[in-house]
Design brief:
This protein has 10 helices and 12 strands. It is of the alpha/beta class and 327 residues long. The protein has a 9-stranded mixed β-sheet with strand order 1-9-10-12-11-2-3-4-5, sandwiched between helices.
C-alpha cells in the first residue's frame, strides 16, 4: 500500500475516535510534586527505568509485568532470556542496587535517596507466561532496597495474562490479541492511580473528551513517533488548576502506529483522570523493520538507541524527561 494512502487511512482512524489536534502544546499548570508514571511489559521496564534515572522528577510508579533496572545489560539476547524467563539463578538484586548507587554517584542517574518517600504499585497476572513471576518479583526486591515496605503494593492474584487488565473494556480475559487490553473485571488503571494518588474520587458520569494529539519534541532522534497524546481534564484546561501528571508507557504492539488510540481509550486511565484532575501523557514508539530492528514498537530497555539507553542522557529518556519538564 502506498505510504501516503496508508498515512491518510491512519489519520482517518484517529479522527474517528474524537481525538483533537493541537497546533501547539496546551497551557498547563502541572504540580511538579505529583508526577508519576506507569507502564505495561516493555513500557513497565521503561517506566521503572525512568523512575530510577529521574527519581528527582517522579513521586511514584506503577509496574504491570516488568523486570528490574539494567536487567538486559545492553543485550537483546539477555533481555529475551533472563529478563523474561525463569532462570536457575535469581537476578542479582544486590549487584543491581550497588550499580545504581555507583551510577548515581557518577551523575548518570538521580540520587536514589529521592526514592525514599515514593509509592510503588506492582502487578503480575497469574496467567502471564511471558514474564516469569520471579523476574517481576525482583522489581519489588529492588525497590525494597530504597523504599519502606509499606510504600510498596504488589498484586499477584488476578487471573490475567500478559496484557493490561481492565474492567468492562478490551478483549476477553482468556484472549491474547491487540490492543492487549483484557476485560478481566479488574481496573488496573484505577487501582494503580488510587495507590499513587491516595484519596481519589471514583469516576462518575463526566464525559471523557480531552484527548489531544500533540507534537513530541526530539522524537525523531529517539525512534519515537512525532505525535504523542495528552489527556487534559476540563479542570486542567488553560492552566486554571495545578494538576497532577501521569506518564503512561504502552507495551510492545500497543503503539498508536499499530492500534490507533485503542490502548489509550480502553485501558481505563481516562475516566479516573477526568474525575481527579490528572493530566495523562501518552508518548508513542515508532516501529521499525530496519536497524535498529523494532517491528513491535517496544520501548528501549535493552539498548537499541545506544549504550546509554538506561541513563538520564539516554535518547528516549531525555525526550520524555524534557517533555515533562516543559509542561
Amino acid at each position: 500500500m502506498p505510504f501516503k494512502l496508508l498515512a491518510t487511512l491512519f489519520s482517518s482512524a484517529l479522527l474517528a475516535t474524537g481525538v483533537a489536534y493541537a497546533d501547539e502544546a496546551p497551557e498547563l499548570n502541572i504540580n511538579k510534586d505529583r508526577v508519576t508514571a506507569s507502564g505495561i511489559s516493555a513500557g513497565a521496564h521503561m517506566a521503572h527505568q525512568m523512575h530510577i534515572a529521574y527519581s528527582d522528577m517522579f513521586s511514584g510508579v506503577g509496574i504491570v509485568s516488568g523486570g528490574p533496572f539494567n536487567c538486559a545489560e545492553n543485550s537483546l539476547v539477555t533481555a529475551m532470556g533472563r529478563c523474561m524467563e525463569k532462570t536457575e539463578e535469581p537476578l542479582p538484586v544486590a549487584e543491581i542496587t550497588a550499580e545504581i548507587r555507583t551510577d548515581a554517584e557518577a551523575g548518570k542517574l538521580a540520587d536514589p535517596a529521592n526514592l525514599e518517600d515514593d509509592r510503588v504499585w506492582l502487578f503480575h497476572g497469574t496467567k502471564d507466561t511471558t514474564i516469569a513471576p520471579e523476574v517481576h518479583n525482583t522489581v519489588e526486591a529492588l525497590y525494597a532496597e530504597f523504599i519502606p515496605d509499606e510504600q510498596i503494593h504488589s498484586v499477584s492474584d488476578v487471573e490475567a495474562g500478559h496484557f493490561f487488565p481492565a474492567d468492562g473494556q478490551g478483549h476477553a480475559c482468556s484472549e491474547m490479541k491487540a490492543p492487549f487490553v483484557g476485560d478481566c473485571g479488574y481496573d488496573a488503571a484505577g487501582e494503580l492511580l488510587q495507590y499513587l494518588y491516595p484519596g481519589l474520587d471514583r469516576p462518575g458520569a463526566k464525559p471523557v473528551t480531552g484527548l489531544l494529539e500533540v507534537n513530541l519534541p526530539g522524537a525523531d532522534d529517539a525512534d519515537l513517533m512525532e505525535s504523542a497524546y495528552l489527556y487534559v481534564p476540563v479542570a486542567c484546561e488553560g492552566g486554571r488548576e495545578a494538576c497532577a501528571l501521569h506518564l503512561v508507557l504502552h507495551g510492545c504492539g500497543q503503539s498508536a502506529e499499530t492500534v490507533g488510540t485503542a490502548f489509550i481509550e480502553q485501558s481505563g486511565y481516562l475516566p479516573w483522570a477526568e474525575a481527579n484532575g490528572i493530566v495523562l501523557a501518552f508518548p508513542q514508539v515508532e516501529k521499525s523493520m530496519f536497524a535498529p530492528l523494532n517491528p513491535h514498537a517496544c520501548w528501549d530497555w535493552w539498548g537499541y538507541t545506544g549504550d546509554n539507553y538506561r541513563y538520564r542522557d539516554g535518547a528516549q529518556m531525555t525526550v520524555l524527561a524534557n517533555w515533562i519538564k516543559g509542561m
